[in-house]
Amino acid sequence: MLKITAIRQDYAEPYAELKRQSTWVIELARLLDPEDAQGQPRTVRQVKREIKQFLARLEQEAAERSTDAKIIASITKAVRHRWWGLFTCYQIPNVPSSNNDLETFFRDMKHHQRRITGRKSVHDFILRYGPFAAFIDYAETFDNLFARLRQVRSEDFQQAHDVLQKVETRLKKLYRFRHHPNEYYWDLESRWEKANSSSR
Prior knowledge:
single chain, mainly alpha, 10 helices, 0% strand
């Protein structure tokens, strides 16, 4: 027991240092929260002012304690580098403050596709359906799906269908070119000959 305690003592100082440095990241995340403690939306000016004050305080701490300078420089650089997009969620209503929900959605979609197809990669599925994959809800029942589809105008459906057809046609051409290049070239030559003979 004494040996274990002695080993722990060797790491007491680095542990305290890491714990102190982690509080900066937690504080920064709190400062970027789109709502205050009362649940009221925060303004761009308010958040920018608090972030600038926070970074100034960190730089002052870096000057006083050289061991923290590298970590503080890394945090400051990360914030400055992303400054242009940090405050969009405060300016435009309904824009999320992070892309966590979007990442979760893509992870769930890929997970469900792997379960359905049994394939490890879902790259082909993403390429084939692209933005249309976002309309898939695996928890949705057929009745709910039909109710949702009834809300779509026929003109909008036809327009989306045409876009999907173009995507699928392009992917079919790519597949034929990669897997059956000779047939692809012969088809191109025959179509070229037909086009030339009809133009004469």
